[in-house]
Design a protein that fits this description.
By secondary structure, the chain is an alpha/beta fold. It is built from seven helices and nine strands; from the N terminus they run E-H-E-E-H-E-E-H-E-E-E-H-H-E-H-H. Keywords: Glycosyltransferase, Transferase.
């Protein structure tokens, strides 16, 4: 952290505070362990002399006990699950100048946050940033420690599993659009930043590995399809300028196909 300039939220004296909102569904021991690993690696990744994490875990399993790591609060919200609504509730309960919204299937490498803060310090126009995943990004043209890459590409510059932004961004964008309750959340985030001309970048010296969530796999195939298809309709309405008549036709067609699913004709649900 030495040498950081005095810019918004970053002082040359004292640690920087970062609020971290993590969504978890500890339905079983395996998923609980995944969240615990996420928290343990997060809290061990930085010296408290440099960075202090204020963490909220939004836990969807109300029977799962509170997390006991220092600096971690557990928040139980009423169902149904809504990715953006749950994130917003966590954000509203925090006050730090930087906010990280994260999946629970992450492994935080040492110094990941310091590297992001260095990027924010070096570029005052940088509003939002993602760390690189050493498992994903090298296979997609972004080598580790190869630089900072501005852009809005989902699964490229935008790592939806870990997004860090200046809290002041919300003064322009508002909170996350709660119509996206799971799928297309990354795409909506990217389009929103691009619409407002807010700079985002992938910082490849910051490493947070995405271990691939198993939470969605806990849902039935039918439920997964419902989640993804309905979100696509909302996305097309908001960003693709589709008419309401077009969307009504698509929705009617989709719901008419539901009985066919129960007859074993799953192929009708292919994209």
């Amino acid at each position: 952290m030495n040498g950081l300039k005095q810019v918004e939220g970053i002082s040359a004296e004292g640690p920087v505070r970062i609020d971290v909102v993590i969504l978890s569904f500890a339905k079983n021991a395996e998923l609980r362990a995944m969240t615990e690993t996420c928290l343990d690696t997060l809290l061990a990744s930085e010296s408290s002399n440099d960075v202090i994490f204020d963490v909220i875990v939004v836990e969807s399993n109300h029977q799962s006990p509170e997390y006991t790591q220092a600096g971690v609060r557990t928040l139980y919200l009423p169902p149904p699950f809504n990715y953006h609504q749950y994130m917003n509730e966590g954000i509203k309960r925090t006050t730090s100048p930087f906010v990280a919204i994260c999946n629970n299937d992450l492994y935080f490498h040492p110094g990941w946050a310091s590297e992001l803060l260095q990027a924010f310090s070096a570029d005052t126009q940088l509003i939002s940033a993602s760390p690189a995943c050493s498992l994903h990004h090298p296979k997609n043209g972004f080598a580790v420690n190869s630089g900072v890459y501005p852009g809005y590409g989902v699964l490229k510059e935008i790592s939806g599993w870990c997004l860090v932004f200046r809290r002041s961004m919300l003064e322009t964008t508002g909170l996350l659009d709660e119509r996206f309750y799971f799928w297309y959340a990354d795409d909506d985030y990217a389009r929103t930043l691009e619409k407002h001309g807010l700079k985002h970048a992938l910082v490849t010296s910051s490493l947070v590995d995405h271990m691939d969530s198993k939470t969605l796999e806990q849902q039935s195939i039918f439920r997964q399809l419902m989640i993804t298809r309905k979100a696509r309709f909302v996305f097309e309405e908001k960003w693709a300028g589709k008419s309401w008549l077009y969307l009504i036709r698509k929705k009617v067609k989709f719901y008419v196909q539901i009985p066919l699913y129960y007859l074993g004709l799953k192929k009708v649900f292919k994209k």
